Amino acid sequence: MHKTIQVIHDEHSSISAMLQSMNLMIERGPKDNPRLFFDVLKAMLFYIEEFPERLHHPKESKYFFPAVLKHSPELNETVDSLEHEHQRSSNMGKDLQHLLLAWELLGESRKPAFIKAAQEYLNFYFNHMHIEHTVIIPQALKTLSASEWAAIDFHFASNVDPLSYSKGEDATFNHLFTTITNHAPAPIGLGDD
Ligand SMILES: [Fe+2]
Ligand SMILES: [Fe+2]
Asked: What separation in Å is there between the alpha carbon of 91 and the centre of ligand 1?
């Protein structure tokens, strides 16, 4: 498998795992430990908002999408909309963090607004990755040459992107991922319920 595809799959798996855990947390609710509930949800939102912004989207936007478009200009609209979503996702994450704080600090009356926005955010992310898997990746596999794959694979293997990446961040995010899942209440994680 091309390194690029493997990295996209791995990173989508991490993002999906965190989104699914977040969904389970929200369905489960604060129960009798609101502090743990809000702390874990905040950490999950931070991860989802930060990790794709710094490590995932820039590689797709800078190296992968342009190579696909070069061969398949008919995908212009689809790629445009994916690019637009890369720009939007960070603001959506920040808005959601605010809505979560409002629920935590102001109480139940602010819960419905958070739940509604969280559902939209989850759908937004799952749909974004679904289009990359079902439209962009298959088209890339059909059209890119061996030398084009080699060039993109190089960037995906080394995570080279001076604007968005500092050395060692992938390890830092892996550590954060484990910390969050370990602290999430059962059955999502290993933390005390
Ligand atoms: Fe993307
Ligand atoms: Fe992606």
From this structure: 15
Q: How far is the CA of 128 from the centre of ligand 1 (A)?
A: 6
Distance from chain centroid for Cα 53: 8
Residues with CB under 5 A from ligand 2 (ion): 132
Distance from Cα 45 to the centre of ligand 2, integer Å? 17
Residue 133 clears pLDDT 80, i.e. is over it: yes
Backbone angles phi, psi at 191, to 5 degrees: -65, 165
Taking Cα atoms as reference points, which of 114, 94, 95, 117 lies closest to residue 104? 114
Q: What are the structural domains, with CATH classification, of the chain?
A: 3-183 (1.20.120.520)
Residue 99 CB coordination number (10 Å): 21
CA 125 from centroid of its chain's CA atoms: 7
The DSSP 8-state label assigned to residue 184 in this structure reads S
Query: pTM for the full model?
Result: 0.88
Task: Give residue 106 CA to ligand 2 midpoint distance, Å.
Answer: 35
Rounded Cα distance, 166 and 49, in Å? 17
In this prediction, residue 115 carries a pLDDT of 97
Q: Which ligand is closest in space to the CA of residue 10?
A: 2
